[in-house]
Design a protein that fits this description.
The chain is of the alpha/beta class. The chain contains 7 helices and 5 strands, in the order βαβαβαβαβααα. Helix 5 packs antiparallel against helix 6. The longest helix is centred in the last third of the chain and has 28 residues.
């Protein structure tokens, strides 16, 4: 069965382009014109394998749509890829790291999105395998789910760091009254890695579970 992709973008032409384009490449794709339409569709029990969510929409933007999704128990685990032409700040990158699978800068074509979608779905599958392996080994569910969340968040945070470094270098793009920049984000990532390493050691007696991410040098 082909992966089901939901496109959320309030520009009708772009929405249609992605629906037609991704269907052409073998996905089963639906499109909605905004955040509220997205939530309304999901309330009908439609469950895509992944959502491509535009950031700059009106009246409900992508960030608000994402926050609402993540507050609904039966929807919060649907993987989300953000798409936007908006410049990302270091503070926003930290917030996004916890709740998305990837972040694509516009302009982008449906063909260029294929690798992002495939990679995100493979990562979701890997996380499910981590959880199932840990549960079968008798690990406490809380610990193994935390381990999986850290793995996922670190992977996303590292991708966002590459985007930020390519765009800004060592410059902080935030407003003058916001001191959160490259150093603070790097410390955030190191903190996640330390927590991951500590938990990995704690559950290291579980047979067959090897570290899935390595700490930054």
């Amino acid at each position: 069965m082909p992966p089901h992709v939901l496109i959320v973008d309030d520009e009708p032409a772009l929405n249609e382009l992605f629906v037609i384009g991704l269907n052409k490449y073998g996905f089963k794709t639906e499109g909605v014109l905004g955040g509220q339409e997205c939530l309304d569709l999901l309330s009908t029990h439609y469950r895509p394998d992944i959502i491509l969510l535009d950031m700059m929409m009106e009246p409900m933007d992508g960030w608000e749509t994402l926050n609402r999704l993540k507050r609904i128990e039966e929807l919060k685990n649907i993987p989300v890829i953000m798409q936007t032409g908006k410049n990302l700040t270091y503070r926003e990158a930290e917030q996004f790291s916890y709740c998305i699978e990837d972040y694509i800068m516009k302009p982008v074509t449906p063909k260029r999105c294929i690798d992002h979608i495939t990679s995100a779905l493979e990562k979701v599958k890997s996380i499910e395998e981590i959880i199932n392996h840990g549960l079968r080994a008798g690990l406490p569910e809380e610990k193994i789910r935390k381990f999986a969340r850290l793995y996922r968040t670190i992977e996303v945070a590292r991708k966002l760091l590459i985007i930020l470094e390519e765009r800004y270098g060592n410059h902080n793009p935030a407003e003058e009254n916001d001191t959160y920049g490259p150093d603070e984000y790097s410390e955030f990532l190191r903190r996640l890695e330390r927590e991951y390493d500590e938990l990995q050691k704690e559950i290291g007696t579980m047979s067959g579970l090897k570290p899935l991410v390595k700490s930054s040098p």
